[in-house]
Amino acid sequence: MVAASEAGTQGARSQTAKKPWYGILYVQVLIAILIGIVVGWLSPNLATNEWIKALGDGFIKLIKMVIAPIIFCTVVSGIAHIQNASKVGRVGVKALVYFEIVSTFALLLGLIVGNLIPIGHGLVAKPDAAAVANYVKQAEAQKSVDFVLNIIPDSVVGALARGDILQVLLFAILFGFALMALGERGHRLRDVIDDTAHAVFGVIAIVMKAAPIGAFGAMAYTIGKFGPAALGNLIGLIVLFYVTAGLFVVIVLGLIARFVGFSIFKFIAYIKDELLIVLGTSSSESALPQLMEKLERLGCSKPVVGLVVPTGYSFNLDGTNIYMTLATLFIAQALGVDLSLGQQVTILIVAMLTSKGASGVTGAGFITLAATLSVVNPALVPGMAVVFSIDKFMSEVRALTNITGNGVAAVFVSWWEGELDHDLLQRRLNQQIDPSDLETAVTTG
């Protein structure tokens, strides 16, 4: 069985190696992103055409179409094959502990950098409250109790239809426990769910062939609509956020990776296809299904991946945390509002709570920023208009940091649980895998 699996893996690797450079998915996506930037810059009227925008939106919708089935099948299958029911709760607790610790580091890093490099000072800011009124309204509607209740779906069908990650995750956990309790009687149903998961991953392999088209459309529209002129004096905040997010990945996530026994740079290279797709679409959800599959093939435990990654999309948003603290300080500096140490501590506490309601969808970070500002100091809320024009450029790095952080989290919790295959981890990190070969890998692995 192992020999057959290895032979299949070698076959998939050989198939990928024989591909010409222009046939590799990440190369196609990178070229598409570059073309999109050029088209958006030179021909903004064409780039902002609704059909160009539809290319990016359509690809994201295709991916979201399969997110709920993938999460359901992966989680149910993982739990149903576990003999010890307490393991699921243990993995969940470990994941939440990890999320809170790493999220705190992300928030602290944003505050430290924002205080050390006060680039908001001297900016002549004339905020327009009307421009962000809709986001403020959504933020005011967010309440902790509503967030908790929203995890419970009104109906299972509705949760699957909407693709609400946490609602699907809750039902999948309950269904997995029920299936586990059936024992041998549930064997055939487990096989059906496993086969369904393989079929859905086959759908993803087909959809991923359209990734370059989606990346082109999303990037062209972004540059065409917001363009270089939108950057203006705010280029400093964009650069500072990019650098801070990079420091978090290299230092914080890098140390975590080193502790487990792998290189963060090799891990980034391993998921580079997903990162480029996220860069093109500005949504970390666009790469969620194939990230879960890659993590399993990397040697992570299937139950751990099924629980940690979907949960992390609401509870482990490192990029969003960095953005909220950094942007809050920038707005305060631009408006000439001095924040005391106590208020900055309040930012940490409030941002830790408001970030839990965000997801990988573009704009969610801006809504949580509004929620944070309204609690810390209501006078800062109109200042959101200062960063409104560049939020689209910052959302891409938020999404990139979020997906990288969730990938590392799955590896770490698998290691913590004692279910990480270190040998397979090292072998996978030293080879090239094209997501377009996903169907082959699923069938042979």
UniProtKB/TrEMBL annotation:
Membrane topology term: Multi-pass membrane protein
InterPro entries: C4_dicarb_transport, Na-dicarboxylate_symporter, Na-dicarboxylate_symporter_CS, Na:dicarbo_symporter_sf
Keywords: Cell inner membrane, Cell membrane, Membrane, Symport, Transmembrane, Transmembrane helix, Transport
Domain of life per record: Bacteria
Location relative to the cell: Cell membrane
Keyword Kinase attached: no
Keyword field contains Membrane: yes
TM region positions: 21-42, 62-83, 95-117, 165-184, 196-223, 235-257, 326-353, 365-388
Matching HAMAP family: C4_dicarb_transport (MF_01300)
UniProt record similarity statement: Belongs to the dicarboxylate/amino acid:cation symporter (DAACS) (TC 2.A.23) family.
Summary of the function given for this chain in its UniProt record: Responsible for the transport of dicarboxylates such as succinate, fumarate, and malate across the membrane.
Protein name: C4-dicarboxylate transport protein
Encoding gene, per UniProt annotation: dctA
